[in-house]
Write a structure and sequence with these properties.
Blueprint (H helix, E strand, L loop, with lengths): L6 H12 E7 L5 E6 L2 H4 L2 H15 L8 E5 L4 H13 L5 E5 L12 E2 L7 E9 L3 H13 L2 E10 L4 H7 L3 E7 L9
């Protein structure tokens, strides 16, 4: 298994397994002429490895200044798991966390789950960035838990306003790819 990020290999996987054309209603409620089903690659052996390697490469030396990565369950879970697994193989102490859509109604009643504690610095991970709503929900929950969110990492940006929404919150969005990498212009 290679821990090297290969941008072209990730693009090929996305093109083959995740990119669909037609008429689709997005989570944001908007209609689009294409859909990116990133679970097809976040749960694919080569896809998971490319995403993890790419996101660790994006973090670079910052990986030593953060405690964890995580995001909204269920979409961010395989991304988080892949990054944590690859980080562990590289001897990095990076941990993961999950953000529930709402606090659990039993047990500790937590909305943020995992080996994290208030005061730690983290990055939110996401598959597809459209308006940024899902990742911002994760940011809100993580901050309410006491985590310091430093930014958002995504697989692909649809270039539909998400980056500006994060900037309004003082957060930088970094993605491995954008829709322009597939010859698609924002709708």
């Amino acid at each position: 298994m290679s821990a090297e990020y290969d941008r072209e290999a990730l693009k090929a996987l996305l093109r083959e397994f995740a990119l669909q054309t037609g008429t689709f209603t997005l989570a944001s409620g908007k209609t689009a002429s294409y859909y990116l089903d990133c679970r097809q690659i976040t749960l694919h052996p080569q896809g998971a490895n490319q995403i993890a390697a790419g996101m660790l490469a994006m973090l670079g030396d910052r990986v030593n200044q953060i405690s964890a990565v995580g995001g909204m369950a269920i979409g961010a879970d395989p991304i988080t798991a892949s990054i944590v697994t690859l980080a562990g193989q590289q001897g990095l102490p990076l941990r993961g966390f999950m953000v529930r859509k709402e606090p659990k109604g039993h047990g500790a009643g937590r909305q943020v789950e995992g080996p994290v504690a208030a005061g730690q610095s983290v990055y939110i991970v996401e598959d597809v960035i459209t308006s940024g709503g899902s990742a911002l929900q994760a940011v809100d929950a993580a901050e309410a838990f006491g985590l310091k969110v430093l930014g958002v990492l995504g697989i692909i940006d649809r270039l539909a306003g998400g980056e500006a929404k994060f900037a309004e919150r003082g957060l930088k969005l970094e993605t491995l790819l954008t829709i322009r990498d597939f010859g698609i212009e924002p709708e």
